[in-house]
Amino acid sequence: MTARPEGSPATEKRQTPAAGGGGEGQEDVVAVPLRRLLAYARPHAPVLALAALLSCMAAVVELAQPLVVKQVFSQLSDSRPVTATVLLIVGLFLAEALLGSVQSYLLGRIGEGVVLDLRTSLVRRLLKWPMATYARHRSGDLISRVSADTTAVHGALASSLTETLAGVLTFAGSLVLMLMLDPLLLGLTLGCLLIASVSVFTVSVRVMKATVEAQRAVGRLGAGLERVLRAIRTVKLSNAEEREESALISESRDSYLAGIRQAKLQALIHPVTALSVQGSLVLVLGIGGARVANGTMELGELIAFLLYLMYLAVPATTLFSSFTDLQAGRAALARVQELLDEPLETEPPAGPAAAPDPEPAPPSPARRRPSGISLHGVTFAYPGRDDRPTLRDLGFEVPELSRTALVGPSGAGKSTVLSLIGRMYDADRGAVRLLGRDVTRMPLKEVRDLIGHVEQESPVMAGTLRSNLTYAHPDATDAEIAEVLARTNLTEFADSLPQGLETEVGDGGILVSGGQRQRIAIARMLLKRPRILLLDEVTSQMDAENERLLNETLKEAAASCTVLVVAHRLSTIQDADQILVMDAGRIIQTGTHDHLIREPGLYAHLARTQLLPTAPPQPDPSAAAR
Ligand SMILES: Nc1ncnc2c1ncn2[C@@H]1O[C@H](COP(=O)(O)OP(=O)(O)OP(=O)(O)O)[C@@H](O)[C@H]1O
């Protein structure tokens, strides 16, 4: 498969506008509707209800306090004892503190629970996307959405939403009691708060935009870092550190600038709210004081009203700032939701196990055994390249328990054929069959259980040598491991490692050589004992001795499984049972090595260029076509 670093221009070109990770930032800010945010809190409804109940109780306790204070003033003016009433106030303070603390713990729990739910759903779905979807997203941005954006949702739910709930209760209660105390003073207070509300609403929309910009910039920073770290050798060998450094710093700066914009806007909210409350305080003091002086209002009433006004200040500030946090959380959830909405790999409809499909083409006279792998009329174009199919009406059969080689020039589509066999992609037309069954009618797990695919990049994952070897067969015994190590000439290597099989091989197999990496990847698939073994250019980094040994191993493997090997070096596949020659998405020649080197065509041409003995030179017929 042609190596395609994520985030390369080709993948960015196909990125949808809403994908969010790549150099966007100019598209409209999206936010999920509030009900969708609330839907995530639904599974925690019982705890939420308890928190709401405690909120109500705290609000009632808080709202009762000014009334009791008013009572103290009345008792004092009537020269009655106030001890019991003062004790009641202290009790109310303690009760409010206790209720507040339990409520805050419950809300924190709900927030964490929602984040856990979101991350669980994300992780479950992320690993089940079709390959084309991964190409549309950048890994670093995905990581940022799973970590940073879900945390922002936590902020919106745990603090904003729930603080809003508590704030609304105290706010509404205060308003009702203030109305009962003095409707005129309440009217003045509401006038001031209205001005604040309009300004806060205007600011909060801009805060949301700035938040989204900051989140996107963090996503791009993650994606950029991931891209650079993955290819750190190339970066160093290309002397590109400074270029990459300034690109990464520029992403950090974008995030910083958006963060500063956000901080500036949020900083406006507090003074606007405080000023409106202070403005109403001055008005109430002035007008209320005058009315107390002329005897139309009691001092206790004015003090109670002022206390309610102070109570109003806290929920008003909380409400206004929670509103902006809520907007930010909705925007973050939109980025998370976008990933959750991506479709998963398609499974066949559940039903009785599919019987082998009738083979459409009559078996070829040369076919001695049933097909291990067969492709019929397969046409396939990568997403976004519909006008240029990579495979065109391609067909071939690989008899079961045989060794077939697929050869052809670079870009002919060999790795793509292997991808279709493993259902990394589905054919646009035609059928891919494994052991007589259409892969699209088999459960994905079954397809992948049947197959052992050693990819061209022979990935070695961060972890120990043992974890790498047993990745596809976690229950492998030590004896089985020792056997495959011997078959892939890795025994000496494993013994030479400081902690043997338990030695860490580094992220991406950075601590092993290219040839060792390829042999580890092959050993991993041999340990799996698949019925179909696919090998994609897996000897490219091996020395001649290891290549010879591997060929022996593959010959042995063909006694128990069907082997399809993609190779550039024809010397490695001369004794294959069948050779398929591929060019521009089609099979153009089929036969054994001895047969093909005598036939004028691409194979003989390739053999000559690799200095293999051939029949007398023939013109290359495909050269004209290509
Ligand atoms: N994920 C992808 N998205 C889009 N195009 C792709 C993708 N992978 C491969 N291609 C394109 O499909 C064509 C065939 O690629 P493929 O990797 O199958 O060729 P190949 O014969 O295996 O080449 P090589 O011998 O160099 O590995 C190439 O033109 C390649 O650019």
Automatic annotation (TrEMBL):
Residues 49-328 form the ABC transmembrane type-1 domain. Residues 349-365 have a biased composition (Pro residues). SMART domains: AAA. Keywords: ATP-binding, Membrane, Nucleotide-binding, Transmembrane, Transmembrane helix. Residues 1-26, 344-372 are annotated as: Disordered. GO terms for molecular function: ATP binding. The chain crosses the membrane at residues 45-64, 84-102, 164-181, 187-207, 302-320. This is ABC transporter ATP-binding protein. It comes from Streptomyces composti.
